[in-house]
Every structure is written in C-alpha cells, then in structure tokens.
Specification:
The protein has about 425 residues and is mainly alpha-helical. The protein is about 55% helix and about 5% strand. The strands form three sheets. A two-stranded antiparallel ribbon has the order 1-2. Helix 3 links the parallel strand 5 and strand 6. Helix 5 packs antiparallel against helix 6, helix 10 runs parallel beside helix 12 and helix 15 packs across helix 18. The N and C termini lie far apart (about 110 Å).
C-alpha cells in the first residue's frame, strides 16, 4: 500500500530528509504507516530512534558473522589488565595491544564501530574457541604439543584454557621447561604476527611462579623475577613471595638472599609482606646477624613493618636477651600501633624480667590477659613457653662464668611474677 506523508512544518519542507529518512513511506519491519507528523511527531521520533537502533544492531551482527578474524581478548595478553574484574556486560572491544581502547554500546545513538573490527581477514589470527573445553586428562607434554601445533601449523593463538591447563599440570622440572618454551614461542608469535608488544599480565606470571615452586623448579622460578626475559613474563612482588614461602618451608637462607637480591636488581619494591617472610626465615634459622642485616635494608627502603614483623623482631631480641634492641623495636611498634599483640606483650614482659622488674612484668601480662579474654589457650601457651623454654634460650647467650648466677636470678624473678599474677586473679597453669 503506497502512503505519502505530509510535512509537519510547511516552512521546512525537508524536515524528514534532515532526520535521515529519504522516503515518504515509513516502514517498520513488515508494517507500513500512513503518518501525520504534525499531530503525532513525538511518536514518530520514538519509532525513528527504534529503527536506528535495530539497523545498527543488524549491521553489527552481520559484520561479526561475516568476518573470519576474531580477536580473542585473552586476559593474560595485556600486562595491565585488571585480573580480578570481569568485563562489563555491555558490548566492548579492546585492542589486545593496549594501544587503542574503545568501548561501544549498541544502544548509544552516536556509537561507531571500531576500525580494527572491519579489517580484512588476516593470515595470523587469534581464534576464540568458546565451545571447546580442555580435559583435565591431558598431560603437560600433550598440552604443549597442541599449543605448538596451533602456532606452527594453524598459525593462530591457542585458547586461554590450554595455557591455564598447562600451568596446572606442571608437576616436574621437565614440565616447567615445556611451559617456559611455549611461553617464549607465544611471545615471539604475538610480537611478529599480532604486533603485540606487551608482556603477559602479572596474574599469569604469579601462576607460573607458583607452578615452579610446586614442581621444585626453583631456577626457573627465579626467572619470573627478571625484568628482561625472553618469555614475556611480568615480574612482581607476589611472585617473589611464592619463592620466599618455599625458602621458609625448606629453611633455605641462600634462596632467600637470592630472591631479595633479584627484587632490588629488577626494581621491584620491598614490601611489608616481604619483610614479614624474611624475618621469620631468619628467626627460624636462629640467625640474628642476618636478621639485623635485613632489618636495616628494609628500614632504609622505607618499609612500614607489620605488627607480625614486630612480633618476630621482639621475640628474637628477648630470646637473645638483647634488651636494647628489644626496646628499640618496641618504640618503632608504638609509632605504628599503640595496642600490643599477644606476642609483643610477652616479649616486653620478658624484657622487664631481664631488667629485674617482675612486678612490672606481671602488670604487663595482666593487662594483656584482660585484653585477650577470647584467646586464653594462646595466653596459656605463651605463659608455658615463658616459664619452661625461654630461660634456657636466653641463658645460652650469657657468658659461661655468669650463667649459673643469671639462671638463679631469672628463676626468682619469674616466681615473683607468677605470684603477682595469681594475686590479681590470672589463671596461671605453669610451674617452674
């Protein structure tokens, strides 16, 4: 049915054309409308906007279906991609190289299609295999072969799932060698064929470091901290902490020193968490000189120590009977937080006993006893260690000719402290 629309404003005979409609017939889908714009122009504008949205959506759908080049946006491709956030629900396209970033919603009236979505088919592409799932039954070697075939034969980037599965399946030093080999090959492919210069993001590199620790391939693990590497890895403090945790578990002072050195050489900042692990390793190894060395390094780097770090420092100082260092650490702790932890309070009480002040030590423990009513089992454990283990530990660092006298005096001070605690109602289940 042919229908002619009349103009809404006779003084502007091109009103319809200026809105982008070159016809006098308004069609919406399979329906046709005979329209009086002068009396119903608001409804006309609504129909017009809906037609524009439908047209834009159809063009976008056709473009995506017709193009054989789909850029798979892998989270591990871009070094600064937020790994803990999912992409927004609206349609988004981003270049994997991180150079151009453009977001487009199909509902936006001024939305334009990003230029790189309309490029011609490329010889090398990163193809999204959304429907393909990786079985957990594959070995690291099988996954390596599949990824290598994708790059060498199919000339396309393998799916994300293959990489994560390979990392999870690395159990031996040989598996880690395959992982680093494919990382290097993929980096070269991305650089030469996809023109992607960015390293993998830090989250993937943390998982690689974790896999190295799990497989015991520590030499490869240390490579994750190199700022200049052929594998495209992004070094991070979190990766270093995985290696330090391994050093702590195996009481490996050499590895700890190497990791701290790598952090500084590769311009990674020393963090409070790093100091926490390093201090614990030194304490477990009973190496006071090494702890003092790293305490100085971390202090000069401006690291703000955690309360757990001060617990370790003060416990070690009280164990050695070094009252001067003990109060130095306590003053630094007080600058950070006024409240004692259970560990720092007992270390301070030990310092008061070393200064022959058992009543003040009892007052300190009574105060912490009231503050930690919900941790009575931990309190009892600390009391028992203080009475049964600590005297012999601190006695080892005294000169042998003064040791017997020191032991007798310390035993007397501890007895006085326990008596004072019982007098104020503190339950003390410890005997000298």
């Amino acid at each position: 049915m042919g229908v002619t629309c009349r103009e809404a404003n006779p003084q502007n005979p091109h009103q319809i054309e200026s809105l982008g409609l070159g016809f006098h017939l308004l069609r919406f889908g399979s329906r046709e409308f005979h329209w009086n714009l002068h009396s119903n122009r608001h409804f006309f504008f609504t129909i017009f906007v809906e037609m524009q949205v439908v047209s834009s959506s159809r063009r976008l759908s056709i473009l995506l279906k017709s193009s054989s080049t789909f850029l798979q946006f892998d989270r591990f491709l871009v070094s600064n991609f937020p790994v803990n956030q999912d992409p927004p629900a609206s349609h988004q396209w981003r270049t994997v190289s991180g150079i151009a970033r453009q977001c487009c919603s199909p509902m936006a009236p001024d939305c334009s299609i990003p230029m790189y979505l309309s490029i011609p088919n490329a010889s090398f592409s990163s193809v999204a295999h959304a429907a393909e799932e990786i079985s957990t039954g594959f070995t690291a070697k099988e996954l390596y072969d599949k990824m290598l075939e994708s790059v060498e034969v199919k000339r396309s980037m393998p799916p994300n799932a293959w990489m994560w599965s390979l990392i999870q399946n690395c159990k031996t030093d040989e598996d880690i060698q395959l992982l680093f080999g494919i990382l290097e090959r993929l980096r070269k492919f991305r650089l030469s064929n996809l023109r992607i210069h960015d390293n993998y993001n830090s989250h993937l590199c943390q998982e690689v470091a974790k896999a190295c620790v799990r497989a015991g391939a520590i030499q490869f693990g240390k490579k994750t901290l190199w700022i200049h590497n052929v594998n495209g890895l992004t070094p991070s403090v979190a990766s270093a902490h995985h290696l330090l945790a391994y050093a702590e578990e195996h009481n490996d002072l050499k590895l700890m020193a190497e990791v701290v050195t790598l952090l500084r050489r590769n311009k990674l900042p020393l963090q409070p968490g790093t100091a926490d692990i390093v201090f614990r390793i030194c304490y477990n190894a009973d190496n006071w000189e090494l702890l003092s060395k790293y305490f100085k390094k971390f202090s000069e780097a401006g690291v703000k120590f955690r309360r757990t770090s001060f617990d370790t420092l003060m416990r070690f100082a009280s164990k050695r009977g070094d009252v001067d260092c003990l109060w130095k650490f306590d003053r630094m702790r007080a600058e950070t937080t006024k409240q004692h932890t259970l560990g720092s309070a007992f270390s301070s009480a030990k310092g008061l006993l070393l200064e022959r002040k058992p009543k003040e030590a009892a007052a300190m423990i009574h105060e912490i006893y009231q503050a930690f009513q919900n941790f009575k089992s931990d309190f009892t454990t600390e009391i028992q260690k203080m009475v049964n283990e600590w005297p012999s530990q601190v006695s080892e660092h005294k000169k042998e000719e003064h040791r017997k006298e020191f032991d007798a005096d310390l035993k007397s001070y501890i007895s006085t402290m326990l008596s004072n605690l019982q007098n104020v109602g503190v339950e003390v289940n410890a005997n000298i």
